[in-house]
């Protein structure tokens, strides 16, 4: 018999692979180890045997078979489960990665391949000077979105190295902590709030010299060089199923890059995953604002989000003459005076994007009498055979409900019908040129959604009623402090649409150096000739010509947010008990079940009514419980169910943010809400 002491001291051979660049030095090193040797001791023995004088501090063991890092250096090999057949690679934790930013520029930088993706993204954002890193994540392009590109690019060469912005010499990229002072709200502004050009202190983010200046301008300024040929080569979703492919490749925030098969020098997309842009401030957020603007711009050009012809022209006008020209000339602009800065900050107070569209109302304001709206509106009810019944009624909006009566005199009695808007979908149906101001309400009922259309007489009436409907859908009344800003936001968007034809622009569009096909989606370049598009974009430009660069970008973002489909990420799912596939839309405050064939919403569930959600990892099924004994369960067909689970938890995590708190993220809470127990 062998004693326990003799058994415990028994040594065995372990073959280790060292990832180094030294020629003539063996990469596979055999070591004799014992099970009670801790990981740190194994590192020490290995380095002593290699006998290469270099900094090994960034090295760690990667277990190839189990796809995991051995980062707990105090654990023994027995506790880790390492045996003689284990394939351990001694490699660097920080490796080079290529990231394609929302503005389609590629940066090359050193990223931690051993940290969780959530932490890695936070470090990347510090390097790129993007605040609120919790809004972004890393995306692998799915095979479906690359097929078209590959077919077209068979004979094309790889992009030249000068097209890639190399940031590998920055402090964060080298594995060093970033200076937290750059995140401070009390510091000197690091960007000109009007021109958006970087101030000198920003250069500390980048390597010294002219490269740093170039890096800043590429990230903070727009360079709209988008040809129709370039657009044609890019993936353009045609159906909801196509749109679902765009969201299939989000990386798991609770696992490292290496654990998700990302290799050194791979290319990933850095994108805003969560559409809740909190605390936008032009003094510190020029890069962030520009990248949000660019993500919105490409989403519209590639028709990832639908918009009307009128809206497309507004987007084109903001791009074509404002952002483009001002971006190109901003390097020569001087610093603006304080009054101009104040004007931009005043404008920003109306344009600022927060989770719910404004600050919480104070207590005294909310306990006063809740205001009501009362007006004559037209009620449109869809009938069979494509006919519509349009009739005028007296409508009263109180709390979160709309009641309508035969006329004003009968408003003291019982209403014809009372509509509770809490949890409903509110869709604008507006054509300013045709004087059409409609509100489409999709109200949840037991067997689906009840459609109701309201028609307003003018812009002011529409803005007041639309704002009230939007707040009511979130369970809030007109007493909320966000009501008036919401009305103003709607009016400003309508004002942008309400242009008059400029005679000079209309008569001489050929005198303008402009390629309209670069500013609208391919659908509209096929519908109109270049001269027609130029003239119409010039018309729309009349209402945005006086804006500053940052304000133009903020207006673009605001207009993007006003689109009915804004913020929806689509997934193909199969609901429990259903015999057909549906599309699930995930937004910042709700889930929407959508008919895949028609695109019509079937049911909406609000996060505010959610009691709990969990995942059955064995059958990959997401189960959610809501108030009033409502429960749903579904499996995800177009992506891993962990992605939807993380989306829900991520949006709930973002709803806990407050301006009163410092900008330190509660990483533990994020992983608790999104990680799951797989």
From TrEMBL:
<dbReference type="GO" id="GO:0005178">
    <property type="term" value="F:integrin binding"/>
</dbReference>
<dbReference type="InterPro" id="IPR040790">
    <property type="entry name" value="Kindlin_2_N"/>
</dbReference>
<dbReference type="Pfam" id="PF18124">
    <property type="entry name" value="Kindlin_2_N"/>
</dbReference>
<keyword id="KW-0965">Cell junction</keyword>
<keyword id="KW-0966">Cell projection</keyword>
<dbReference type="GO" id="GO:0042995">
    <property type="term" value="C:cell projection"/>
</dbReference>
<feature type="domain" description="PH">
    <location>
        <begin position="378"/>
        <end position="474"/>
    </location>
</feature>
<dbReference type="GO" id="GO:0007160">
    <property type="term" value="P:cell-matrix adhesion"/>
</dbReference>
<comment type="similarity">
    <text>Belongs to the kindlin family.</text>
</comment>
<dbReference type="GO" id="GO:0005925">
    <property type="term" value="C:focal adhesion"/>
</dbReference>
<protein>
    <submittedName>
        <fullName>FERM1 protein</fullName>
    </submittedName>
</protein>
<keyword id="KW-0130">Cell adhesion</keyword>
<dbReference type="InterPro" id="IPR035963">
    <property type="entry name" value="FERM_2"/>
</dbReference>
<dbReference type="InterPro" id="IPR019749">
    <property type="entry name" value="Band_41_domain"/>
</dbReference>
<dbReference type="InterPro" id="IPR011993">
    <property type="entry name" value="PH-like_dom_sf"/>
</dbReference>
<dbReference type="InterPro" id="IPR001849">
    <property type="entry name" value="PH_domain"/>
</dbReference>
<dbReference type="InterPro" id="IPR037843">
    <property type="entry name" value="Kindlin/fermitin"/>
</dbReference>
<dbReference type="GO" id="GO:0007229">
    <property type="term" value="P:integrin-mediated signaling pathway"/>
</dbReference>
<dbReference type="InterPro" id="IPR037837">
    <property type="entry name" value="PH_Kindlin/fermitin"/>
</dbReference>
<dbReference type="Pfam" id="PF00373">
    <property type="entry name" value="FERM_M"/>
</dbReference>
<dbReference type="InterPro" id="IPR019748">
    <property type="entry name" value="FERM_central"/>
</dbReference>
